[in-house]
Amino acid sequence: MASLPTPSADSRIRAGALREALATRVVVADGAMGTMLQAQDPTLEDFQGLEGCNEVLNVTRPDIVRSVHEEYFAAGVDCVETNTFGANSSALGEYDIAGRIFELSQAGARIARGVADEFTVSSGRQRWVLGSMGPGTKLPTLGHTSYAGLRDGFQQNAEGLIAGGADALVIETTQDLLQTKAAVLGARRAMEAAGSDLLVLCSLAFETTGTMLLGSEIGAALTALEPLGIDMIGLNCSTGPAEMSEHLRYLARHSRIPLLCMPNAGLPVLTKDGAHFPLGPEGLADAQETFVREYGLSLVGGCCGTTPEHLRQVVERVRGVAVTPRTPHPEPGAASLYQTVPFRQDTSYLAIGERTNANGSKKFREAMLEARWDDCVE
Q1: Would you state the pLDDT for residue 357?
Q2: Are 103 and 242 members of one domain?
Q3: Domain span at residue 252?
Q4: What is the pLDDT of residues 242-287, one digit of tens each?
Q5: What is the pTM of this model?
Q6: What residues does 169 pair with on adjacent strands?
Q7: Could you tell me if 358 and 254 lie in one domain?
Protein backbone atom coordinates (compact mmCIF):
# COMPACT_ATOMS: atom_id res chain seq x y z
CA MET A 1 0.00 0.00 0.00
CA ALA A 2 1.16 3.55 -0.65
CA SER A 3 0.61 4.70 2.93
CA LEU A 4 -0.87 3.25 6.06
CA PRO A 5 -2.45 4.96 9.07
CA THR A 6 -0.19 5.49 12.05
CA PRO A 7 -1.10 3.20 14.97
CA SER A 8 -3.13 5.01 17.60
CA ALA A 9 -2.25 5.20 21.28
CA ASP A 10 -5.20 2.90 22.00
CA SER A 11 -3.90 0.22 19.64
CA ARG A 12 -0.46 0.32 21.26
CA ILE A 13 -2.04 0.01 24.72
CA ARG A 14 -4.15 -2.96 23.60
CA ALA A 15 -1.17 -4.73 22.04
CA GLY A 16 0.86 -4.16 25.20
CA ALA A 17 -1.96 -5.52 27.36
CA LEU A 18 -2.15 -8.63 25.20
CA ARG A 19 1.57 -9.21 25.59
CA GLU A 20 1.25 -8.91 29.36
CA ALA A 21 -1.78 -11.22 29.48
CA LEU A 22 -0.04 -13.94 27.46
CA ALA A 23 2.99 -13.74 29.73
CA THR A 24 1.01 -14.15 32.94
CA ARG A 25 -2.21 -16.09 32.35
CA VAL A 26 -3.85 -18.41 29.88
CA VAL A 27 -5.64 -16.48 27.14
CA VAL A 28 -8.58 -18.10 25.30
CA ALA A 29 -9.30 -17.55 21.61
CA ASP A 30 -12.40 -18.53 19.62
CA GLY A 31 -13.25 -21.61 17.56
CA ALA A 32 -14.35 -22.42 14.03
CA MET A 33 -15.40 -19.58 11.72
CA GLY A 34 -16.29 -21.13 8.35
CA THR A 35 -18.93 -23.55 9.59
CA MET A 36 -20.52 -20.82 11.70
CA LEU A 37 -20.82 -18.60 8.64
CA GLN A 38 -22.19 -21.39 6.44
CA ALA A 39 -24.80 -22.25 9.07
CA GLN A 40 -26.44 -18.89 8.32
CA ASP A 41 -26.97 -19.90 4.66
CA PRO A 42 -25.43 -16.95 2.84
CA THR A 43 -26.70 -16.65 -0.72
CA LEU A 44 -24.72 -16.66 -3.94
CA GLU A 45 -25.51 -12.95 -4.13
CA ASP A 46 -23.96 -12.50 -0.68
CA PHE A 47 -20.81 -14.08 -2.10
CA GLN A 48 -20.97 -11.74 -5.13
CA GLY A 49 -21.12 -14.86 -7.27
CA LEU A 50 -17.91 -16.21 -5.69
CA GLU A 51 -19.41 -19.15 -3.84
CA GLY A 52 -17.39 -20.24 -0.83
CA CYS A 53 -15.27 -17.09 -0.63
CA ASN A 54 -16.07 -16.29 2.99
CA GLU A 55 -13.92 -13.16 3.01
CA VAL A 56 -16.36 -11.41 0.64
CA LEU A 57 -18.96 -11.56 3.41
CA ASN A 58 -16.86 -8.97 5.26
CA VAL A 59 -18.21 -6.36 2.85
CA THR A 60 -21.54 -7.84 1.73
CA ARG A 61 -22.83 -9.35 5.00
CA PRO A 62 -20.88 -7.86 7.90
CA ASP A 63 -23.91 -8.68 10.08
CA ILE A 64 -23.30 -12.41 9.63
CA VAL A 65 -19.59 -12.12 10.43
CA ARG A 66 -20.35 -9.86 13.37
CA SER A 67 -22.82 -12.37 14.82
CA VAL A 68 -20.15 -15.09 14.90
CA HIS A 69 -17.76 -12.85 16.83
CA GLU A 70 -20.56 -11.94 19.23
CA GLU A 71 -21.35 -15.58 19.97
CA TYR A 72 -17.76 -16.36 20.85
CA PHE A 73 -17.30 -13.26 23.01
CA ALA A 74 -20.57 -14.08 24.76
CA ALA A 75 -19.08 -17.51 25.55
CA GLY A 76 -16.32 -15.71 27.44
CA VAL A 77 -13.32 -15.87 25.12
CA ASP A 78 -10.62 -13.20 25.36
CA CYS A 79 -10.05 -12.79 21.64
CA VAL A 80 -11.49 -13.66 18.24
CA GLU A 81 -9.84 -14.27 14.89
CA THR A 82 -10.78 -12.20 11.89
CA ASN A 83 -12.67 -13.68 8.96
CA THR A 84 -9.60 -13.38 6.73
CA PHE A 85 -8.21 -16.91 6.58
CA GLY A 86 -8.29 -16.85 2.77
CA ALA A 87 -7.38 -13.19 2.24
CA ASN A 88 -4.11 -13.93 0.47
CA SER A 89 -2.80 -13.96 -3.08
CA SER A 90 -3.22 -17.65 -3.84
CA ALA A 91 -6.68 -18.17 -2.32
CA LEU A 92 -8.24 -14.97 -3.67
CA GLY A 93 -6.32 -15.46 -6.90
CA GLU A 94 -8.42 -18.57 -7.56
CA TYR A 95 -11.48 -16.29 -7.56
CA ASP A 96 -9.64 -13.73 -9.73
CA ILE A 97 -9.88 -11.10 -6.97
CA ALA A 98 -6.29 -11.02 -5.72
CA GLY A 99 -6.48 -7.23 -6.00
CA ARG A 100 -8.89 -7.16 -3.05
CA ILE A 101 -6.55 -8.60 -0.42
CA PHE A 102 -6.13 -5.34 1.50
CA GLU A 103 -9.81 -4.39 1.23
CA LEU A 104 -11.17 -7.68 2.55
CA SER A 105 -8.49 -7.96 5.25
CA GLN A 106 -9.19 -4.48 6.54
CA ALA A 107 -12.96 -5.04 6.47
CA GLY A 108 -12.64 -8.29 8.41
CA ALA A 109 -10.46 -6.67 11.06
CA ARG A 110 -12.80 -3.69 11.43
CA ILE A 111 -15.79 -5.93 12.09
CA ALA A 112 -13.96 -7.90 14.78
CA ARG A 113 -12.52 -4.69 16.27
CA GLY A 114 -15.96 -3.16 16.64
CA VAL A 115 -17.38 -6.20 18.41
CA ALA A 116 -14.30 -6.56 20.65
CA ASP A 117 -14.52 -2.93 21.72
CA GLU A 118 -18.22 -3.26 22.55
CA PHE A 119 -17.60 -6.30 24.75
CA THR A 120 -14.63 -4.58 26.39
CA VAL A 121 -16.89 -1.72 27.44
CA SER A 122 -19.87 -3.85 28.46
CA SER A 123 -17.84 -6.42 30.42
CA GLY A 124 -15.08 -4.23 31.78
CA ARG A 125 -12.57 -6.80 30.53
CA GLN A 126 -10.25 -6.17 27.60
CA ARG A 127 -11.02 -8.21 24.48
CA TRP A 128 -8.63 -8.56 21.56
CA VAL A 129 -8.58 -9.21 17.82
CA LEU A 130 -6.22 -11.73 16.22
CA GLY A 131 -5.65 -11.08 12.53
CA SER A 132 -5.94 -14.42 10.72
CA MET A 133 -3.38 -15.13 7.99
CA GLY A 134 -4.15 -18.51 6.42
CA PRO A 135 -1.74 -20.56 4.30
CA GLY A 136 -3.38 -20.09 0.93
CA THR A 137 -3.61 -22.83 -1.65
CA LYS A 138 -0.12 -22.84 -3.18
CA LEU A 139 3.03 -24.51 -1.80
CA PRO A 140 6.22 -22.68 -2.84
CA THR A 141 8.45 -25.64 -1.99
CA LEU A 142 6.64 -27.65 -4.66
CA GLY A 143 6.94 -24.81 -7.17
CA HIS A 144 3.24 -23.92 -7.16
CA THR A 145 4.06 -20.22 -6.79
CA SER A 146 7.03 -17.92 -6.29
CA TYR A 147 8.28 -17.08 -2.84
CA ALA A 148 8.35 -13.35 -3.57
CA GLY A 149 4.79 -13.31 -4.88
CA LEU A 150 3.55 -15.19 -1.86
CA ARG A 151 5.43 -12.88 0.52
CA ASP A 152 4.01 -9.75 -1.09
CA GLY A 153 0.49 -11.13 -0.90
CA PHE A 154 0.91 -11.88 2.79
CA GLN A 155 2.23 -8.35 3.29
CA GLN A 156 -0.99 -6.91 1.82
CA ASN A 157 -3.00 -9.26 4.03
CA ALA A 158 -1.13 -8.06 7.14
CA GLU A 159 -1.35 -4.40 6.11
CA GLY A 160 -5.12 -4.66 5.86
CA LEU A 161 -5.37 -6.39 9.24
CA ILE A 162 -3.22 -3.74 10.90
CA ALA A 163 -5.22 -0.91 9.31
CA GLY A 164 -8.45 -2.56 10.48
CA GLY A 165 -7.34 -2.71 14.12
CA ALA A 166 -5.91 -6.19 14.75
CA ASP A 167 -3.95 -6.58 18.01
CA ALA A 168 -1.80 -9.49 16.78
CA LEU A 169 -1.19 -11.45 13.58
CA VAL A 170 -1.78 -15.20 13.54
CA ILE A 171 -0.03 -17.08 10.74
CA GLU A 172 -2.02 -20.29 10.98
CA THR A 173 -2.54 -23.75 9.52
CA THR A 174 0.85 -23.54 7.86
CA GLN A 175 1.82 -26.59 5.80
CA ASP A 176 5.10 -25.63 4.14
CA LEU A 177 8.03 -24.05 6.02
CA LEU A 178 8.91 -21.85 3.02
CA GLN A 179 5.29 -20.69 2.88
CA THR A 180 5.47 -19.95 6.62
CA LYS A 181 8.66 -17.92 6.22
CA ALA A 182 7.02 -15.91 3.44
CA ALA A 183 4.10 -15.09 5.75
CA VAL A 184 6.38 -14.08 8.64
CA LEU A 185 8.46 -11.82 6.42
CA GLY A 186 5.32 -10.33 4.83
CA ALA A 187 3.95 -9.59 8.30
CA ARG A 188 7.24 -7.98 9.36
CA ARG A 189 7.30 -5.77 6.26
CA ALA A 190 3.70 -4.71 6.89
CA MET A 191 4.44 -3.75 10.49
CA GLU A 192 7.50 -1.79 9.44
CA ALA A 193 5.45 0.09 6.85
CA ALA A 194 2.75 0.86 9.41
CA GLY A 195 5.11 1.69 12.26
CA SER A 196 3.46 -0.94 14.46
CA ASP A 197 4.84 -3.69 16.67
CA LEU A 198 2.23 -6.41 16.96
CA LEU A 199 2.74 -9.94 18.21
CA VAL A 200 3.35 -12.46 15.42
CA LEU A 201 1.98 -15.90 16.29
CA CYS A 202 2.82 -18.96 14.20
CA SER A 203 0.55 -22.01 14.24
CA LEU A 204 1.50 -25.17 12.35
CA ALA A 205 -0.71 -27.91 10.92
CA PHE A 206 0.56 -31.45 11.56
CA GLU A 207 -1.00 -34.43 9.84
CA THR A 208 -1.85 -37.79 11.42
CA THR A 209 1.45 -38.99 9.91
CA GLY A 210 3.24 -36.93 12.57
CA THR A 211 4.66 -34.38 10.14
CA MET A 212 3.53 -31.28 8.26
CA LEU A 213 2.08 -31.82 4.80
CA LEU A 214 5.49 -31.78 3.11
CA GLY A 215 7.10 -34.06 5.69
CA SER A 216 8.61 -31.57 8.14
CA GLU A 217 9.03 -32.79 11.71
CA ILE A 218 8.26 -30.55 14.69
CA GLY A 219 11.98 -30.11 15.40
CA ALA A 220 12.63 -28.83 11.89
CA ALA A 221 9.78 -26.34 12.22
CA LEU A 222 11.02 -24.97 15.53
CA THR A 223 14.63 -24.72 14.33
CA ALA A 224 13.61 -22.93 11.14
CA LEU A 225 11.02 -20.54 12.56
CA GLU A 226 12.12 -19.50 16.05
CA PRO A 227 15.13 -17.48 14.75
CA LEU A 228 12.75 -15.39 12.61
CA GLY A 229 11.67 -13.55 15.75
CA ILE A 230 8.12 -14.88 16.03
CA ASP A 231 6.47 -14.33 19.41
CA MET A 232 4.63 -17.66 19.80
CA ILE A 233 4.57 -21.07 18.17
CA GLY A 234 2.09 -23.92 18.32
CA LEU A 235 -0.41 -26.07 16.46
CA ASN A 236 -3.89 -25.85 15.00
CA CYS A 237 -6.21 -27.71 12.61
CA SER A 238 -5.59 -31.05 10.80
CA THR A 239 -6.10 -33.17 13.93
CA GLY A 240 -7.72 -33.23 17.33
CA PRO A 241 -5.83 -32.69 20.59
CA ALA A 242 -4.93 -36.37 21.03
CA GLU A 243 -2.68 -36.28 17.97
CA MET A 244 -1.00 -33.02 19.07
CA SER A 245 0.28 -34.12 22.46
CA GLU A 246 3.77 -35.32 21.44
CA HIS A 247 4.41 -32.25 19.29
CA LEU A 248 3.46 -30.00 22.20
CA ARG A 249 5.69 -32.03 24.50
CA TYR A 250 8.64 -31.36 22.18
CA LEU A 251 7.88 -27.64 22.01
CA ALA A 252 7.50 -27.44 25.79
CA ARG A 253 10.98 -28.95 26.19
CA HIS A 254 12.81 -26.95 23.54
CA SER A 255 10.95 -23.73 22.59
CA ARG A 256 12.24 -20.46 24.01
CA ILE A 257 8.99 -18.69 23.10
CA PRO A 258 5.42 -19.15 24.45
CA LEU A 259 3.13 -21.88 23.09
CA LEU A 260 -0.39 -22.04 21.67
CA CYS A 261 -2.80 -24.81 20.66
CA MET A 262 -6.09 -24.68 18.72
CA PRO A 263 -7.11 -28.25 17.76
CA ASN A 264 -10.05 -29.51 15.77
CA ALA A 265 -12.90 -31.20 17.61
CA GLY A 266 -11.23 -34.55 16.95
CA LEU A 267 -10.53 -36.27 13.65
CA PRO A 268 -13.43 -35.85 11.19
CA VAL A 269 -15.73 -38.79 10.56
CA LEU A 270 -17.31 -38.90 7.11
CA THR A 271 -21.09 -39.44 7.21
CA LYS A 272 -23.86 -39.23 4.64
CA ASP A 273 -24.37 -35.63 5.78
CA GLY A 274 -20.70 -34.71 5.40
CA ALA A 275 -17.81 -34.50 7.85
CA HIS A 276 -18.64 -34.83 11.54
CA PHE A 277 -16.22 -33.85 14.31
CA PRO A 278 -16.78 -36.21 17.25
CA LEU A 279 -15.04 -34.47 20.14
CA GLY A 280 -17.57 -32.73 22.36
CA PRO A 281 -17.11 -29.56 24.44
CA GLU A 282 -16.14 -31.44 27.59
CA GLY A 283 -13.51 -33.47 25.71
CA LEU A 284 -11.91 -30.35 24.28
CA ALA A 285 -11.95 -28.66 27.69
CA ASP A 286 -10.33 -31.73 29.28
CA ALA A 287 -7.57 -31.76 26.68
CA GLN A 288 -6.85 -28.04 26.83
CA GLU A 289 -6.75 -28.04 30.62
CA THR A 290 -4.22 -30.88 30.50
CA PHE A 291 -2.11 -29.12 27.87
CA VAL A 292 -2.13 -25.89 29.87
CA ARG A 293 -0.90 -27.60 33.02
CA GLU A 294 1.56 -30.07 31.46
CA TYR A 295 3.03 -28.01 28.62
CA GLY A 296 2.67 -24.43 29.85
CA LEU A 297 0.47 -23.13 27.03
CA SER A 298 -0.25 -19.40 26.96
CA LEU A 299 -3.00 -19.35 24.30
CA VAL A 300 -5.71 -21.95 23.68
CA GLY A 301 -8.71 -22.10 21.39
CA GLY A 302 -10.37 -24.31 18.82
CA CYS A 303 -10.40 -24.93 15.09
CA CYS A 304 -12.65 -26.97 12.76
CA GLY A 305 -15.73 -28.42 14.40
CA THR A 306 -15.46 -26.36 17.57
CA THR A 307 -18.39 -24.15 18.60
CA PRO A 308 -19.10 -21.41 21.14
CA GLU A 309 -20.14 -24.13 23.59
CA HIS A 310 -16.76 -25.85 23.16
CA LEU A 311 -15.02 -22.59 23.99
CA ARG A 312 -17.37 -21.74 26.85
CA GLN A 313 -16.29 -24.92 28.61
CA VAL A 314 -12.62 -24.24 27.85
CA VAL A 315 -13.02 -20.77 29.38
CA GLU A 316 -14.55 -22.29 32.53
CA ARG A 317 -11.54 -24.60 32.95
CA VAL A 318 -8.67 -22.18 32.34
CA ARG A 319 -9.92 -18.68 33.10
CA GLY A 320 -7.56 -17.01 35.54
CA VAL A 321 -5.08 -19.90 35.42
CA ALA A 322 -1.48 -18.71 35.49
CA VAL A 323 0.85 -19.85 32.74
CA THR A 324 2.79 -22.89 33.99
CA PRO A 325 6.49 -21.99 34.11
CA ARG A 326 8.73 -23.93 31.75
CA THR A 327 12.48 -24.45 31.76
CA PRO A 328 13.20 -25.11 28.10
CA HIS A 329 16.42 -26.71 26.94
CA PRO A 330 16.98 -25.36 23.42
CA GLU A 331 18.99 -27.48 21.00
CA PRO A 332 21.09 -25.32 18.68
CA GLY A 333 21.16 -26.93 15.28
CA ALA A 334 20.40 -26.68 11.59
CA ALA A 335 17.28 -27.89 9.82
CA SER A 336 16.46 -29.19 6.40
CA LEU A 337 12.87 -29.17 5.19
CA TYR A 338 12.38 -32.46 6.99
CA GLN A 339 14.35 -32.63 10.22
CA THR A 340 16.61 -30.76 12.59
CA VAL A 341 20.21 -31.83 13.29
CA PRO A 342 21.58 -30.59 16.64
CA PHE A 343 25.06 -29.08 16.72
CA ARG A 344 26.32 -31.91 18.91
CA GLN A 345 29.57 -33.85 18.52
CA ASP A 346 30.20 -37.07 20.41
CA THR A 347 33.62 -37.33 22.06
CA SER A 348 35.09 -39.50 19.34
CA TYR A 349 36.76 -39.11 15.96
CA LEU A 350 34.58 -37.79 13.15
CA ALA A 351 34.41 -40.35 10.37
CA ILE A 352 33.98 -38.80 6.93
CA GLY A 353 33.27 -41.59 4.47
CA GLU A 354 34.49 -39.93 1.31
CA ARG A 355 37.94 -39.44 2.84
CA THR A 356 38.36 -43.21 3.29
CA ASN A 357 37.49 -44.17 -0.25
CA ALA A 358 38.36 -47.87 -0.41
CA ASN A 359 36.55 -48.25 -3.73
CA GLY A 360 38.26 -45.40 -5.56
CA SER A 361 41.80 -45.93 -4.28
CA LYS A 362 43.49 -49.32 -4.64
CA LYS A 363 46.48 -48.09 -2.61
CA PHE A 364 44.28 -46.99 0.27
CA ARG A 365 42.28 -50.22 0.22
CA GLU A 366 45.43 -52.37 0.43
CA ALA A 367 46.80 -50.29 3.30
CA MET A 368 43.51 -50.58 5.16
CA LEU A 369 43.27 -54.36 4.68
CA GLU A 370 46.85 -54.74 5.91
CA ALA A 371 46.11 -52.52 8.95
CA ARG A 372 48.79 -50.00 7.94
CA TRP A 373 46.94 -47.12 9.65
CA ASP A 374 49.74 -44.57 9.32
CA ASP A 375 49.69 -45.05 5.56
CA CYS A 376 45.89 -44.62 5.62
CA VAL A 377 46.20 -41.35 7.54
CA GLU A 378 48.79 -40.06 5.07
Answers
A1: 72
A2: yes
A3: 9-334
A4: 999 999 999 999 999 999 999 999 999 988 888 889 999 999 999 9
A5: 0.89
A6: 131, 200
A7: no
